[in-house]
Amino acid sequence: MSGSSSEQLLEFFEALLAAYGPQHWWPGQTPTEIVVGALLTQNTNWKNVERAIARLRQADLLDWRRLHEIESDRLAEVIRPAGSYNVKARRLKNFVVWLFDRFDGRLEALAEMPIEEARAALLTVNGVGRETADAILLYALGRPVFVVDAYTARVLWRHRLIDDDAGYDQIKEFLESALPVSAALFNEYHALLVEVGKRHCRPRPQCEGCPLERFEHHATATGRSAAAADDS
DNA sequence: GACCAGGCACATC
DNA sequence: GATGTGCATGGT
Questions:
Q1: What CATH number did the domain enclosing A131 receive?
Q2: Which of the 90-149 residues on chain A come under 7 Å of nucleic strand C at their beta carbon?
Q3: How confident is the model at residue A226, as a pLDDT?
Q4: How large is the average pLDDT for residues A194-214?
Q5: Containing structural domain, residue A92
Q6: Which protein residue's Cα is closest to nucleotide C9 at C1'?
Q7: pLDDT of A206 over the 60 cut
Q8: DSSP string, A97-164
Q9: Helical H runs in chain A?
Q10: How many Å does it take to go from CA A128 to C1' B11?
Q11: Is residue A58 part of a domain?
């Protein structure tokens, strides 16, 4: 066996960063745009989300007040390239209405309260699940929360760092307790896990050339998708 | 033509 | 509490 989980996770991070470099997820974008992107990217290719965001910008809709005012049907038409546009228009509206009702349209309010409180508040919004809530906290608000997704779970399971039945919150807590608490680190690490996951850790793994190939791992991967279960 | 993508809510067992 | 399904576009 090699060292502790903490050491192993840091070694993985170094290996991934050396191989792929910084991923620059959500660089230079406004918190508003990041929140919108987090909602639009649900089960959707990022390229399609970029198209939808470009259309929103074109329509001058990357603004909470404008989003609050617009009709859901018209919003759906604008974000069409993101797919599932009727559902996503509803979710965007849910979020914006909630933001005005509860925080007077001030996203910053979420940066001013304890993390767990902000997370619990976000989770009350219909359309905001754990991954989206955590993406908002980390990428839009710079709070040190680890975003777990299907790739995160699969990569960590393949390298024997988590059980195959670990739930979302369990994986999140494992990462947050094993790593230095740093938004910058969590940001980069999550993006790197997605990158290595896409290239090498699909349900059918392609280990050749994987930056993590030299580390211990299961010979085969299951088709395990994400952190499905609740673990409270 | 399948299969996938930076999920989630809801129904059903 | 686990599993299945609809949402829907655009790339490979």
A1: 1.10.340.30
A2: none
A3: 36
A4: 90
A5: 31-140
A6: A83
A7: yes
A8: HHHHHHHTT-GGGGGSS-HHHHHHHHHTSTT--HHHHHHIIIIIT----PPP-HHHHHHHHHTTSS-T
A9: 5-20, 31-40, 46-58, 64-69, 72-78, 85-103, 115-123, 130-135, 150-158, 168-178, 183-200
A10: 19
A11: yes
In this prediction, residue A69 carries a pLDDT of: 97
Q: Name the region of A43 (left: φ>0; alpha: ψ -120 to 50; beta: rest).
A: left
What is the sign, positive or negative, of the torsion defined by CA atoms of A219, A222, A223, A224? negative
* In the block, residue with structure tokens 């393949």: A158
Q: What is the pTM of this model?
A: 0.93
Q: Which residues contact A190 (CB under 8 A, 6 or more apart)?
A: A25, A138, A146, A147, A149, A152
Q: Which residue is nearest to nucleotide C6 (CA to C1')?
A: A84
A189 is a domain residue = no
Summarised one tens digit per residue, pLDDT across range A43-60 is 999 999 999 999 999 999
Q: Which nucleotides of C are covered by protein (CB under 7 A)?
A: 1-3, 6-11
Residue A198: CB less than 7 A from any atom in strand B:
yes
Between CA A86 and C1' C9 the distance (Å) reads 12
The two three-digit tokens of residue A61, written as one number:
């809709």
Cα separation of the two ends of chain A: 30
Where residue A211 falls (left for φ over 0; alpha for ψ -120 to 50; beta otherwise) is alpha
* A192 within some domain: no
The 10 Å Cβ neighbour count of residue A50 is 15
Query: How many Å from the CA of A3 to C1' of C11?
Result: 41
**Domain tally for chain A?**
1
In a domain, A145, yes or no: no
pLDDT at A37 over 90: yes
